[in-house]
Design a protein that fits this description.
365 residues; mainly beta; Immunoglobulin-like; 4 domains; six-stranded mixed sheet; five-stranded antiparallel sheet; 1 helix; Ig_sub; glycoprotein; protein-tyrosine-phosphatase; transmembrane; signal
């Protein structure tokens, strides 16, 4: 770009443009010549004559812009509309400049919206304006799904065979929405699970730009590969949980880092009672004895005693108090029984002991 006072030359991609701003009647009226050369062969040229009119001395039919674009401020992703209406005879064609260069209408996000010209004509037909003004050319520039690159100064240009009219450069500001990360679906503070259970932890975070989301176990064990960190949502699958552990969801963007920690707490049922045995065997009664489970023994509320007999081939069950010995009566004499035992806490029933065989005594022996 070359600038000298009111004259600016733009060169880009083989196109050269001379801009005179502001033009002055009687001073800038002249023929202008564009010369192109590349050192091979003769130079080529093209000539055009510029005629500048005072505002109150324009010829009949000269384009007049009736609606000017206004300063617009939008967020990225929204639609921007730059309004422009012009009159003239013949009806002027309208095109747009951005930062003094013609807007590339091949961009699929850019379009020209034509308003209802018939409605315009009907409205004007009721006025006393001369007929030469009774043709308007409404052409609004619409930019869909706006991006930061759309920001700049836009000009509406109305042109017909009589002349050309420009609006003043009007800024379009495109703001990039910046929102620090926040959790829209954080993990729960505490999850209580049974020993060996599976659990799915889901963490969702939002922001602009969207944050990456990863998981950490304990203090410093990263669970999400650095080369595969998902954006916005991360699901952690835990299997065969054996130990209570903290899991932390971390959401991060250029605007900050936030964390949410969950305690996955293992709530165990009691282990099986130990040293389960028969200490006294009678004709119709058996005394059983055992030791408390080594794990979660302090949480036991009662025991579950199971047995079956080989005489009636039936299985039986009885809930017994929180004790370490129990006498079961009303049995058949001289009958083989199998007994097994489990402990129950508020979390549920634990593992059972292996069945032990016990034969009741015969009558009179």
């Amino acid at each position: 770009m070359m600038t000298q006072s009111r004259y600016t030359v733009y060169d880009a991609n083989g196109v050269s443009m001379l801009r005179i701003e502001p033009v002055r009647a009687g001073r800038d009226d002249a023929p202008y010549e564009c010369v192109a050369e590349n050192g091979v062969g003769d130079a080529v040229s093209a000539e055009a004559t510029l005629t500048v009119y005072e505002g109150d001395k324009t010829p009949a039919g000269f384009p007049v812009i009736k609606q000017f674009p206004t300063i617009r401020v939008i967020e990225t992703g929204h639609t921007a509309v730059m309004q422009c209406k012009a009159t003239g005879s013949p009806p002027p064609k309208i095109y747009w400049l951005k930062d003094m260069k013609r807007v590339d209408m091949t961009n699929p996000r850019y379009s020209i919206n034509s308003e209802d010209v018939a409605a315009e004509l009907k409205e004007i037909s009721h006025t006393l304006c001369p007929k030469r003004w009774q043709t308007r050319a409404p052409r609004s520039l619409q930019i869909d799904n706006s991006e930061e690159s759309d920001m700049g100064k836009y000009e509406c240009v109305a042109e017909n065979s009589i002349g050309t009219e420009h609006t003043k450069p009007t800024p379009l500001y495109v703001k990039v929405r910046r929102v620090p990360p926040t959790f829209s679906r954080p993990p729960e503070p505490v999850y209580e699970v049974m020993l060996g259970a599976n659990l799915t932890l889901t963490c969702v975070a939002v922001g602009s730009p969207m944050p990456s989301v990863k998981w950490r176990k304990g203090v410093d064990q990263d669970l999400t590969p650095e080369n595969d960190v998902p954006v916005g949502r991360n699901v952690l699958e835990l299997t065969d949980i054996r130990v209570s552990t903290n899991y932390t969801c971390i959401a991060q963007s250029s605007l900050g880092v936030i964390e949410a920690t969950s305690l996955v707490k293992v709530q165990c049922v009691p282990s099986q009672p130990s040293n389960f045995r028969a200490t006294d065997v009678g004709e119709t009664a058996v005394t059983l004895q055992w030791s408390r489970p080594t794990h979660s023994g302090e949480n036991i509320v009662h025991y579950e005693l199971y047995w079956n007999d080989t005489y009636a081939n039936e299985q039986h069950h009885q809930r017994i108090p929180n004790t370490e010995t129990y006498t079961l009566s009303s049995l058949y004499p001289d009958t083989l029984y199998y007994f097994w035992l489990s402990a129950r806490s508020q979390r549920g029933e634990g593992a059972t002991t292996p069945p032990i065989p016990v034969r009741t005594k015969q009558y009179g022996k």
